[in-house]
Hints:
mainly alpha, 18 helices, 0% strand
Amino acid sequence: MATSNTGSSAVHRNLGKTSFSRPSPTENGSTRHDSSHTEFHSEDMVQWARHVERIKAEVIELVKVQMSEILDKALTDSLKSLSQSTHSDAVGNTHSHTDEKARRHRMEDGKVFVVRQSILDELFEISHIRTIYHMFIAALFLFIISTLAVDYIDQGRLVLDFDLFFYAFGHLGTVIWAWLIMFSYSLLGPYHVLSQWADLYHHFHWKMSVSVATAVTLLVAQMGILGYFPVYVVLHYQLPPASRFIVVLEQIRFLMKSYSFIRETVAAVLRAKPVKGEACRFPTLSSYLYFLFCPTLIYRETYPRNPYIRWNYVWRNFAKILGSLFYLYFILVRLCIPVLMNESNRPFSTRTLILAIFHATLPGMLMLLLGFFAFLHCWLNAFAEMLRFADRMFYKDWWNSTSFANYYRTWNIVVHDWLYYYAYRDFLWLSGHRLRPVATLSVFAVSAVVHEYTFTMGFGFFYPVMFCLFAVIGAVFNFTLSDKRKGPAWNIIMWTCLFIGQGVQVCLYCLEWYAQVHCPRTGTGFWELVTPRSWTCKI
């Protein structure tokens, strides 16, 4: 039986092998069909896998952005609550209701600095965003090639003339010594005056007299060195536009930084209760010196710091700033000057104005993006890296704004923080936390006046374009296009308004510049100085 079963098993195995090795024609066709179906299915699987990878990348990026915002908010809230609890434990329960009000504006309740990167640095790690950045670089090369080609066709040789640069940045020696005077005063003046006041305030019986004398001294010094002196330098030496803007912007920066130092230091001295016989604790000069250069307008004795400096990152940012200046030069030479110079030669009319505005929208928007990238990203990040300043949130994702209220808050965080803590919140505190709309309007008024002053001193003529855009149109948009507006359509509306606004600025300032050249003033009367020449100039 065993032999029989073994032989039968062998026969069955041989039959099985034979039937498997010699399939029928029908089975061959079925096999080919299954093979083609398998190949088709595998192609679908590859395409599906690629689609899933794309979706996964998008989901990961979205979650990353959302988690970053949530963690920033959670960290900020936790630091605030920690500082509040620490202060409460130290003080105890002996304070009255008046002390609770006084603590509302203590330093710990202000801006909290944390370690974080700039948004563009995070976005540039994504290949798709880097491609958009590369497209702008390609456009710069295109401007250079087109300029060289036109010069070669017109003059028969390659010409790359930068006379406009040399003119705009002329008198740099005057700019440097004027800056040194403003810097020396900003460093030593407020610091030594406040240090003397702090020593006298807690050891002198006439506290009010000492405080008033100190306030008057600081006010006179601020108005003289940081108020009158830069204006004198700009007007007396007839500086060209770029040099004017350097002096005026540094004047404003030193004023805002010194005010923040005074505001925070005075509040700390008033809160301090030194032991009898001991000097009042006062900030060190090195901390104030660091503050004058670090990219923030809110004074703190210490900031979060990075462990080392990435010098390659610093040089790359300065190279990007230089590239942005060349970009601006080619935009002016190729897109602005030829068009608006011709428009300025025509009689002023509504048609001429509208055409000039729409011609200026594209270069105006490019200038806005270049100014944002060169200053708010590259310049501030370069100084932050050199000083190991770790909080790099100089702006937020303003390009995603669906309202102008959000755009104003996210475009320039550095200036917004200063206006919020020292203009808006202090106004609310003085008014007993009433009149919030009035506080908002006061911030717009301050911003409009400063912007108009900057452009008036920079260009050398008065044309209240910036004042109207900020104090009138900006305030209206802030209340009408509020945070309640959501959706892609409102983002499109916001960008459309930005395009038109930039076109209005570039157009009107360029037309007025050429009108001032072709039709100079004949007198020094008030109306002669404040009336735009482009309204009456006829060539």
